[in-house]
Amino acid sequence: MTGIKGLNSAWLVLVVLLLAILGLYLSKNSILSVQAKQNIFHFMVGQETNLSTGQWDELQTEHYKIKYMTEDKAEVALVANAAEDAYTSVSDRMGQEPGRQTTIVIYPDSKSLAASFGWDKNEKALGVYWGGTIRVLAPSAWLSGVDQQDRFIKEGPMVHEFTHLMVDQMTRGNYNRWWTEGVAQYTEKQITGFEFASPFNGKQQLYYYTLDNLEKNFDSLDQSVAYWEALQAVDFIVDKYGEEKIYTVIHYLGKGDSMPKAIEGTLGTDYETFSHDFYQYLENN
């Protein structure tokens, strides 16, 4: 398997299977709290990561443990500097810091990054946050030319993925996909200026999903539209109610409220009215 050396694959398969079984159990077990499920999931992902990268090289920074292949040694400083920059800028914006050192794993190519999650080998991503860890594609796999440090900070995944980590921590794992993707994109846009192009820039007819559909089926929807709409939802809250309401919603989620209850408690309106006003916002912008 590309990007993995010195690995006992039988043990890795066993750990991954145990993780999958545990995840299935947790998803159906109503006795454990969301926080307890999050803690167990993070522990299992951490164990799998330690096993799969046990013989990789490692760099310790103030806030991170970075695991990498020897072939990617020249790029570690680039990732470390961007990660520390993201730590400061995102933590300052969200008013909280992680309680522990974060593990970052650098993969030399898209195939090995995808394989670490069991994704299709053709799946492309610059970075992924999963279970307390951040996994990134080596900059050389997609970045070339001058000003690589500035470009990696602006175009790379560190701010986006670190925001996911903060949402996970601040909500104690009680969040849905459209919310964390919306907050991550909004934060990334504010800090780096980066924003994905609208899927409707080519004059395609506008369409959107209901928030209920986004919550239940995010990963099976058209991803360009789902990600765009998630950012639009956060932009709508900021434009109408103020940026501080994002963090109030996160506060309510951290207390265990559902997404509708968190929205209602934060904005002082019922969720049906919020949804209707949001759809009107999409149609008028």
CATH topology value of the largest domain: Glutaredoxin
Number of domains: 2
Q: Would you identify the regions where 5 or more consecutive residues have pLDDT less than 50?
A: 1-8
* Strand count: 5
What shape does the CA trace take?
globular
Number of helices: 12
Rg from C-alpha positions?
19 Å
Write down the CATH class of the largest domain.
Answer: Alpha Beta
State the share of residues found in helices, binned by percent. Answer: 55-70%
Structural class by SSE content: alpha/beta
Mean residue pLDDT: 87
Element-level helix/strand string: HHEEHEHEEHHHHHHHH
Task: Describe what this molecule looks like in 3D.
The chain is an alpha/beta fold and 285 residues long. It folds into 2 domains: 116 residues, Collagenase ColT, N-terminal domain (Glutaredoxin), CATH 3.40.30.160; 108 residues. It is built from 12 helices and 5 strands. Strands 1-2-3-5-4 form a 5-stranded mixed β-sheet, with helices on both faces. Helix 3 links the parallel strand 2 and strand 3. The N terminus is likely disordered.
